[in-house]
Design a protein that fits this description.
Blueprint lengths: L2 H19 L4 H16 L17 H13 L3 H9 L2 H6 L7 H11 L4 H9 L11 H17 L3 E2 H14 L4 E4 L1 H4 L4 E2 L1 E7 L4 H6 L4 E7 L3 E6 L4 E6 L5 H9 L2 H14 L2 E3 L2 E4 L2 E4 L3 H7 L15 H6 L14 E2 L13 H10 L4 E7 L10 H15 L6 E9 L10 H4 L4 E5 L8 H13 L5 E2 L17 H10 L3 E5 L9 H9 L4 E4 L11 H10 L13 H8 L3
Parallel strand pairs: 4-7, 11-12, 12-13, 13-14, 14-15, 15-16, 16-17
Antiparallel strand pairs: 1-3, 2-4, 5-6, 6-7, 8-9, 9-10
The chain binds 2'-deoxyguanosine-5'-triphosphate, calcium ion (2 copies) and zinc ion.
Length: 561
């Protein structure tokens, strides 16, 4: 994905937001958002290709993009930026504050930033305004706090892309990322890269195009801030202590503290230079040697959170974690029939390139009004999928749908229609702030529907944008286990939903999981690896994951055998 695509997509997104804030037509807002997504997901670099070839980009949008590519802006965007100050736009990033309310607060009270809003609430200046009760104020304060925290961390997808770019552009004898990124945490505070050799590497690092500012620079460590605001630390380490450095800087701090406690008892010392007895090096070259010397199994980085992994590794009882190679298919993907940008043919062809044994297309169902889905369209797609099947003898194509769980737990279609789908994912897409007990029964009712196979992105959170819904998760997990309903691990990195701590809890209740990409474009299929990271952090094995199963076992689970 070229940077021009990302930048143009971001500009169109911003334009869509501003257009909505200033009272623009909802369908046009939607078409800008759709075009932005399409451009971001387009495989070719649009600064070289004709942007009109991107699906969903008509003449009017193409003109804007072309102007943007020439001068980094376009007239209509400039106009709206003048009407709505930057800080007011920041207001809309507060969860539960929509564009209309943000503009209202600006015009009525001159509130022009999240900080100004927090202040106004503190001074009681919102009291008496229509639509701003005590409960709303409390939610706004929570949202402001969340925004503050989120702006200091990025999701795994952003950090991983950047780390891989950096690593690919720096020639070194050895180079790898450590820290929370190697542990596959869902959000990343900063990127930690370790390298062996050459002397010129620090200069090359500081000269990379995405470096905005050099924070600190020395012979052994350089820290920079990238154009996206993320900090990257590069450390040069001696070849003979590579393993010790990787172990130390991978963390987590809590995991390392546990290991050092063990060392102290034996009179040993563990540092980023090695495992020592007095001056004698016991192990330092590889991580494996270090863990072995400590009398334990090598611990996969996603487990290194002091969640019982040290004890298990000492007993030789670490789980055999599910891997990306174990996944046989993807059970939640979209096409341009709803909000995806690629055609059915394109998605299926890309899935085949991943070598899948099965692949489900699950476009949105009619109750998500904006997607304009109908039964007729779904059946037409099914026929088209059946025709395509002949071209892919080694990959079973499954026709599915992503249903909407209504506030009462019901879904879009009656049983006789649902039975016609091979796989039904059901997700919450509205009414996010239902009270806890209602939200809990909503999920339980959905689980109890015999045609619902998978609950999609269960908490509905979007990292840095939308908080998780409130539910009694243990009660939901109990229901999912009892009804044989899988819970999704949505691998799309701004969702990462279920998060790993809840996955681990659900597993204790006997729940099965589906690791899905929730793809809306061909490149998204590759996001599945982030879902595997979540699964590994939750100690899942192949047996816990329905799309790591062979086709026959999956079909039996779906009741479609
Ligand atoms: P982040 O960056 O907030 O997402 O999380 P980490 O885990 O990458 O943390 P970071 O970048 O502060 O440090 C990277 C690793 O280096 C950390 O996981 C453990 C190790 N480390 C850094 N500083 C210390 C320290 O003061 N004590 C110990 N025991 N370990 C440290
Ligand atoms: Ca870090
Ligand atoms: Ca760091
Ligand atoms: Zn969804």
């Amino acid at each position: 994905m070229g940077r021009a695509n990302d930048d143009a997509a971001a500009a169109l997104e911003e334009y869509a937001d501003l257009f909505a804030m200033t009272g623009g037509d909802a369908f046009r807002v939607r078409s800008y958002q759709k075009a932005a997504k399409a451009i971001a997901g387009y495989p070719e670099d649009i600064s070289r290709a004709d942007v009109r070839k991107v699906p969903g980009v008509g003449e009017a949008i193409a003109k804007k993009v072309e102007e943007f590519l020439q001068r980094g802006g376009f007239r209509q965007l400039d106009d709206l930026r003048m009407q709505v100050p930057e800080g007011v736009r920041m207001l809309t990033r507060i969860a539960s504050l929509g564009p209309k309310k943000a503009v209202f607060l600006y015009r009525e009270l001159g509130i022009d930033s999240p900080e100004a809003l927090a202040e106004a609430i503190g001074e009681g200046r919102l009291a008496g305004l229509r639509g701003f009760g005590a409960k709303t104020e409390e939610n706004l304060l929570k949202g402001i706090e969340q925004l503050k925290q989120a702006s200091e961390r990025v999701h795994l997808g952003v950090a991983m892309n950047l780390a891989e770019l950096i690593i690919a552009s720096l020639p070194a004898e050895k180079i790898a990322y450590a820290g929370s990124l190697r542990r596959m945490k869902d959000t990343i505070g900063d990127i930690d890269i370790l390298a062996v050799g050459p002397a010129t590497i620090m200069e090359e690092f500081k000269g990379l195009p995405y470096v905005a500012e050099v924070i600190a620079s020395g012979g052994l460590k350089t820290s920079v801030r990238t154009t996206r605001g993320l900090q990257v630390d590069l450390r040069v380490v001696p070849a003979e202590s590579w393993g010790a450095a990787m172990q130390y800087f991978t963390g987590s701090k809590e995991h390392n503290v546990r290991l050092r406690e063990m060392c102290v008892k034996r009179g040993w010392k563990l540092s980023e230079y090695g495992l020592f007895e007095g001056e004698t090096v016991i192990a330092s070259k590889t991580e494996e040697e270090i863990y072995e010397a400590l009398g334990m199994q090598w611990v996969p980085p996603p487990l290194r959170e002091d969640g019982g992994e040290v004890q298990a590794a000492l007993r030789g009882e670490l789980p055999e974690l599910v891997t990306l190679a174990d996944l046989q298919g993807d059970l939640h993907t979209h096409t341009n029939l709803t909000d995806g940008i690629a055609t059915l043919e394109e998605m299926v062809e890309a899935a085949a390139r991943h070598g899948y044994a099965y692949y489900a297309v699950t476009d949105h169902a009619p109750n998500l009004f904006m997607q304009r889905m109908t039964l007729e369209k779904a059946l037409e797609q099914r026929a088209q999928l059946h025709r395509l099947q002949d071209e892919y003898p080694d990959m079973r194509l499954l026709h599915g749908t992503e249903l909407n769980i209504a506030p009462d737990g019901s879904v879009d279609w009656p049983a006789e229609i649902l039975e016609g789908f091979d796989v039904c994912v059901a997700s919450v897409h509205s009414h996010f702030s239902q009270p806890r007990d209602e939200m809990t029964s909503r999920f339980i009712t959905a689980c109890e529907n015999p045609n619902v196979h998978i609950i999609g992105h269960p908490t509905t959170r979007k990292i840095g944008k939308r908080p998780p819904v409130d539910a009694d998760w243990e009660a939901v997990f109990e229901a999912a286990a009892r009804t044989n309903t899988a819970l999704e691990i949505d691998a799309y990195p701004d969702r990462a939903d279920l998060p790993s701590d809840l996955v681990r809890l659900a597993r204790h209740h006997g729940v099965k999981f589906s690791i899905d990409s929730d793809s809306h474009a061909v490149p998204h299929l590759g996001n599945l690896r982030f879902g595997v990271g979540i699964a590994q952090r939750a100690w899942l094995t192949r047996d816990d994951v329905i799309n790591a199963w062979p086709l026959e076992r999956l079909l039996a689970f779906l009741g479609r055998g």
